[in-house]
Amino acid sequence: MNCQSFDDVRKIVKDMDISFVQFWFTDVLGVLKSFAITPSELEEGMTEGMGFDGSSIEGFARIEESDMIAKPDPTTFQLVPWRSGDRPVARMFCDVLHPDGTPYEADPRYVLKKLLKKIAEKGYTFYVGPEAEYFYFKDDKGTEVLDKGGYFDSRPVDMGSSLRRDTIFALQDMGIQVEYSHHEVAPSQHEIDLRYNEALRMADNMMTYRMVVKEIARQNGVYATFMPKPIFGENGSGMHVHQSLFLKDKNAFYDASDNFNLSTIAKQYIAGLMRHAPEITAICNQWVNSYKRLVPGYEAPVYVSWARRNRSAMIRVPMYKPGKENATRIEFRSPDPTCNPYLAFAVMLGAGLKGIENKYELAAPVEEDIFEMNPAERKAHGITDLPGTLYAALLATEKSEMVRDVLGDHVFNKFIENKRIEWDSYRTHVSQYELDKYLSTL
Asked: Which pTM was predicted?
C-alpha cells in the first residue's frame, strides 16, 4: 500500500471501510505506544494531530507541561494484518509535537529526522539494514524452547519455519521487504533480515517488525522475545546493522582503487564508529540483560576492532562483489534488537560523521580470532574493550559530547536518568545465584 498524502489515506479509509486507525509512536526507550481513532475523527487527526498526555510517556514531559500532539505521517499508512476482517484496522507512525506545532525534542523519531536532515543538506542519504534475532518460547513464563535446532537448520529440526513464513507474509503485506530468514545458532532462535532502506523508514520498519513477530507468535499460541540473553550458556540475540552513505545516487563508501574497495569517507566513518563505540554502547545495548550477551565465547563482539572476514570483530566489511558497488557497506555487530532504533541509528550515524568531519585515521584490520588472543596480544593490536556492564556503558555515555549533541539535552538526560534507576534496581537485587552460592556457607 503506497500512500503519499492524506488524500490517499482518506480514499483508502473510505474505500476499504476502515474501522480504526492506530497512531503509533515510541517513548525514549523505544517502547511502542499507540491509540486508536475512528474514521470520523481522522480528518482532525491528520490536519491538526491528536492530543495526549505526555507526562505518562517515559522520557517525555513533566505534568505541568504535558500536553502533546501526535501528528501522523501519511507515508506510513498500512493495514494491520493481524486485525483482518470485514472492517480492517490501519496504522500510521506519528511525529510528536508541542501544542504550537513545533517538533517535540523528546520524540525519538525527531532526533533521527533532525540528523538525517543535516546530512541531506550535504547531499547524503543514510541507509541501514538490520539483522534482528529473537527466540520463540512456549510461553512468557519461562524459556522452554520449541526446537533444538542450530544455524541454518531446516525441518524437522527447525520448528519455527512456519511461524517465520507467516511473519514474512505479514511484513510484506505492510510494505516491508524481507531478504531472507533462517534458524539461528541457539535452540529456538531465529532471524528475519529486512532489505536495507533509508534510516527513518527502517526505524519505523524495525518497530513494526518487532510487533509483527510477537503478534504472529501470539496468534499461534507461542511467545516471541527479543530479550538479548534469555538462556544461560547459549548465544544471545543481536542486531547486526549494515550501513552505508550515498551521495545522491552513488555509494560514498565505494572506491574501486582501494585494496578493500573502501573510500576515504568509509574508512573515516569506520574509525568514527570505533572511537566512539564505548560512548554509544548504552544506547545500542540499553538493558542490564544486554551485557549478558556481550561476553566472549558466544559470537557477540566485545572488542573494538574491524575486519573483513573476521566475525569476532565489532565491525565487519562484507566482501565486495564485482558490479555490486552499491552494496558496499559496513556491518556494526554489537547492538541488540531491543534498542530504540531511532536513537541507535542516530548515534551510529553521529559517530561515523565525527570520523568523517575530523578525518579520523583507521587502524589496520584484525583478521585473527580476537577471542583466542590473550590481553597482551590484544593490547599489541591496539584492541580495546566495549563496556562490560550497563553501569560502565552509562559512564562512557555520560561523558560523550557527541551523544549529547545527537540526542539533544532532553533525551540525553532522560535516558541516563532512566538507565541509572534500572542499574540501581539491578545492583541491589539479591539473586537466586547469590542465595545458592553464599547462603549455606557464609
From this structure: 0.95
Q: Write down the residue that cell numbers 578493500 correspond to.
A: 260
The alpha carbon of 26 is separated from its chain's Cα centroid by a whole number of angstroms, namely 12
Residues catalogued as catalytic: 53, 131, 133, 184, 191, 240, 311, 331, 333
**Orientation angle between helical segments 401-427 and 390-398, nearest 10 degrees:** 150
Q: Which residues pair with 127 in a beta bridge?
A: 198, 244
User: Tens digits of per-residue pLDDT, 399-442?
Assistant: 999 999 999 999 999 999 999 999 999 999 999 999 999 999 99
Classify the phi-psi angles of 395: left when phi > 0, otherwise alpha if psi is within -120 to 50, otherwise beta: alpha
Do 286 and 408 lie in one domain? The reply is yes
The grid coordinates of residue 303 equal 572488542
Q: How far apart are CA 96 and CA 102, in angstroms?
A: 9
SS3 262: strand
Do 93 and 158 fall into the same domain?
A: no
Instruction: Give the domain extent around 185.
Output: 113-432
Long-range contacts of 59-64 (CB under 8 A, 24+ apart): 59/27, 59/28, 59/29, 59/106, 59/411, 59/414, 59/415, 59/418, 60/27, 60/28, 60/96, 60/104, 60/106, 61/106
For residues 341 and 239, state if they share a domain: yes
